[in-house]
């Protein structure tokens, strides 16, 4: 089926058509019961000089803990730039954030300058990996390397993971760096077009971007930052809620909701 999406630029709530669906929601079909919920943030920059990264991490943990009490999430993702350049920060950063959620997944950003082996030793999974929860699959990939160079997603690994989950209802992808920004990665749009169950891609890196960009009818979602020396005023985490007919997403500041968007699925 043709996958169409449109973004209404006015108002706090916007609507997309996504995940291979092009019809509107029929009123009788609307069911707002949340079937699955997860959360994510990015750009912690643990260790960056002259920044209060410890305080910002604690604010994130406190805000998410409060949210989680009444809105349980199945997992939490830190989508890159967990540390700031020096590998010596990786272990203390892990100790600082591991209490966010019992299911904590991470991606490598350009400031996470450690080897694949060290990354797996600390976090317990590869740079490129996947997890699934029932009808939903989640694909994670690196967009950098051990020296901090920017990199496009590995399309061979991506295709393998997407093929694995072709029968899933929804697939969500996490990359630190937006492949269609300054990178202008080739082949990503064409590959994702073959998988209509891809609902959304989540990016970090751009600290001042809290918006959603539509590329080839797929929403790419940004969430600002947790810490770092520049970027958005609010220190956000993003929440994603799956219902029968929609995927709803919004930012928490971390104690107030803003920028709610609904994807028609």
**How does CATH name the architecture?**
4-Layer Sandwich
Please state the CA-atom Rg, rounded to the nearest Å.
Answer: 17 Å
Mean pLDDT: 92
Largest pleated sheet: 7 strands, mixed
CATH topology title? Purple Acid Phosphatase, chain A, domain 2
Characteristics:
seven-stranded mixed β-sheet, Calcineurin-like phosphoesterase domain-containing protein, disordered N terminus, STPP_CPPED1, six-stranded mixed β-sheet, Metallo-depent_PP-like, Purple Acid Phosphatase, chain A, domain 2, 265 residues, 13 strands, alpha/beta
If you had to describe this structure to a student in words, what would you say it looks like?
This protein is α/β, with parallel strands linked by helices. The protein has one domain: 4-Layer Sandwich (Purple Acid Phosphatase, chain A, domain 2). The protein has helices at 53-70, 90-97, 116-123, 155-164, 188-192; strands at residues 14-17, 36-41, 76-79, 104-107, 129-133, 136-140, 170-174, 198-202, 212-215, 218-221, 237-242, 246-252, 257-264. The strands form two sheets. The chain has a seven-stranded mixed β-sheet with strand order 1-13-12-11-2-3-4, covered by helices on one side. α4 (155-164) links the parallel β6 and β7.
Please give the structural blueprint.
Elements: E1 14-17, E2 36-41, H1 53-70, E3 76-79, H2 90-97, E4 104-107, H3 116-123, E5 129-133, E6 136-140, H4 155-164, E7 170-174, H5 188-192, E8 198-202, E9 212-215, E10 218-221, E11 237-242, E12 246-252, E13 257-264
